[in-house]
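A quick aside before the break. I want you to see a complete sequence-to-structure record at least once, exactly as it would be stored in a machine-readable document. Don't worry about memorizing anything.
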Amino acid sequence: MRDILVSARRILIKFLEGLLILFTVVLVFDVVWQVIARYLLNAPPSWTEELANMLLVWVALLGASLAFVRHSHLGVDILVNKLNDRHRTVADLVTYSFFALSILIYGGSMLVLGTFENRQISPALQIPRGYAYSILPLSGFFIFMFSVGEAVEKVASLLKR
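That is the input. The structure line, written in tokens, reads:
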């Protein structure tokens, strides 16, 4: 069971890293093209700025998911650090799972569905805004999966003691 979780986590991390690399490369090319078109051709395309904004949000939220799994994320842990290992594990699982499930997955899904129902279209890219907002439940999924995997690891280590 533990080996399956470790393998799944490794696959998710590699997938996440690949997405981040892809979106960052596309973001760089998009911004470079926008600068070239604006200053050399005097004809900036209207879609480049909107795509750059969307990709920046995607890279930030996917980067937050990767920072979470690498324990590089920001957190106010002054109270949690005063707990023993068992209580800290429970507090981490509850807070991370609650944040990922309620705010990112549930709230993000409601936002995505609402934009599709209202047929909101991005002005320059002419795509449904729900696609841009779909990063919220996706990053919530990553954070939730990583927090559950980490909780299983911590519980297993606590039971060995």
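Two observations worth writing down. DSSP finds five helices and no strands in the chain. The two ends are 19 Å apart (CA to CA). We'll return to this after the break.
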